[in-house]
Design a protein that fits this description.
six-stranded parallel beta sheet
Length: 244
């Protein structure tokens, strides 16, 4: 079954994952609460811990994007960022066994899907290839998919393209790996900036707002900032729009 309007000619739907398909904040906070309690810190700070850890995500990738650092998979960046964030919560990495930090770092492998994600992806894959176009590394994406039941056709992303979004190579190499022209690929994302970068590379675009990605009081990415090809309120809503 091919996709019709407004995505006629699209052969692959590729997805931002953190925030669009899975709830990174809730999953990281859940595991951080137990970690903080075990080390004498306040488990009520777990959501703030998740936010502080995530705040280091873009700066760490920028070191790679800028060329100041060779390509380094996200698991390694997350682990370094975890050690860096501990002092903000009164903890010292030297006082925590390395295996405990390694276990907490795997929280990013165990994130829960948004309630519509599995059904939505299952329906969408009837009309196109579905795959992640994430900054996550391969084993992270595989572990997450197996735990959450995400029915990807392939695992793509930064480690395959050797580039972090929004670097153009992240989008263009993904299309090349799929043996498709950029316009045959549609990025589905909850982030306007991600979609803008993909559009600049010739990809088609679909916006799915996730107003709780950053918790209560979120002020960004609540509405489309351009006329994306499709806007839907969920992945199941996107399937509805595409007749799947």
């Amino acid at each position: 079954m091919a996709l019709g309007e407004p995505l006629a000619g699209v052969r692959a739907l590729v997805f931002d994952v953190f925030g669009t398909v899975v709830d990174w904040r809730g999953g990281v906070a859940r595991e951080a609460a137990a970690f903080l309690a075990n080390h004498g810190a306040d488990p009520a700070e777990a959501a703030r811990f998740a936010d502080a850890w995530r705040k280091r995500y873009q700066p760490a990738m920028e070191e790679v994007r800028s060329g100041r650092r060779p390509f380094t998979r996200l698991d390694v960046l997350h682990r370094e960022n975890l050690e860096g964030v501990l002092p903000e919560f009164g903890l010292d990495a030297m006082d925590v066994p390395g295996e405990e930090l390694d276990a907490l770092n795997l929280a990013w492998h165990r994130l829960d899907p948004w309630p519509d994600a599995v059904e939505g992806l299952t329906r969408l894959k009837a009309g196109a290839i579905v795959a992640p176009l994430s900054n996550g590394n391969i084993v992270l994406m595989i572990d997450m998919a197996k735990r959450a039941g995400l029915p990807w056709d392939a695992i793509l992303g930064a480690e395959v393209a050797r580039a972090y979004k929004p670097t153009p190579d992240a989008y263009l190499r993904t299309a090349e790996i799929l043996a498709m022209a950029p316009e045959e690929v549609c990025l589905v994302a909850a982030h306007n900036s991600d979609l803008a970068a993909a559009r600049n590379c010739g990809l088609r675009t679909a916006f799915i707002p996730r107003p709780m990605e950053h918790g209560p009081g979120q002020t960004t990415d609540l509405h489309p900032e351009q006329e994306w090809e499709v806007v839907a309120d969920s992945l199941t809503g996107l399937a509805d729009r595409l007749g799947l």
